[in-house]
Amino acid sequence: MMMIKIKPLVLLLLLSCTWVLTVATSDSAYPTISDCGMEELVPVRREVYGNGRIFDISHRFREDMPSWDSGDGLGQFLRLRHSIKNGSLTNVSELRYFSVHSGTHVDAPGHVFDHYFDAGFDVDTLDLELLNGPALLVDVPRDKNITAEVMKSLNIPKGIRRVIFRTLNTDRRLMWEKEFDTSFAGLMKDGAEWLVENTDIKLIDPTSKDLVLNGNDQ
Ligand SMILES: *[C@@H]1O[C@H](CO)[C@@H](O)[C@H](O)[C@H]1NC(C)=O
Ligand SMILES: *[C@@H]1O[C@H](CO)[C@@H](O)[C@H](O)[C@H]1NC(C)=O
Ligand SMILES: *[C@@H]1O[C@H](CO)[C@@H](O)[C@H](O)[C@H]1NC(C)=O
Fold first, then answer.
1. What are the angstrom distances between the C-alpha of 5 and each of 8, 84, 91, 199?
2. How much of the chain exceeds pLDDT 70, in percent?
3. Is 189 in the pocket of ligand 3 (CB under 6 A)?
4. Most buried pick, 77, 97, 173, 205, via CB within 10 A?
């Protein structure tokens, strides 16, 4: 009985070692593992893919990441429900209650418009064509919020659909402060109105926190 149970497991382990070795030699995206976990494994978290074709600008969720209006950060949002060390076949983590308005995220249309919320306009309804593609990175003046006047001075060419604003928030490392700081630099109402009326921008990252879609496009 025991043999029957063990054999498939051994086979599985052998197969996964072969697989890891094969992949390691053929693709630099995977960590090089010269044997079956005898060396220290170091996770590789890449931010740039394809020589700059894709930049991962998401912040990893951390317990001490700022959370809207909170002094205590995000708190414990992840725990291990099943653990290999405790005899389970797999590690299975569990996400616990935390605001989806946390970390790097996209605001759904229903976030600020109640009639959209009632009609079910959640993030699933957003257009992936709009969310993916070339973006213009713009350094904005560090001594101002993004007002209409600032927007105008940036001279963002027509035809640009996606922009990322690099603001004082990044310099101040606000995403690394546990306590939520209400003085973050952001896109002001008149700046947003100017953007809608005078540019082709449909996707913006105004604070390094929220990605915002220009609702007029939908
Ligand atoms: C598996 O669970 C152990 C704790 O039993 C943990 O230390 C380890 O990081 C987990 N591995 C993965 C890949 O989640
Ligand atoms: C493993 O089990 C022990 C005893 O039940 C428990 O205290 C511990 O939290 C468990 N650890 C994990 C990572 O599940
Ligand atoms: C941006 O506006 C906030 C209030 O919303 C303010 O606290 C902050 O000082 C302003 N930032 C700059 C650079 O003017």
1. 7, 17, 20, 64
2. 77
3. no
4. 205
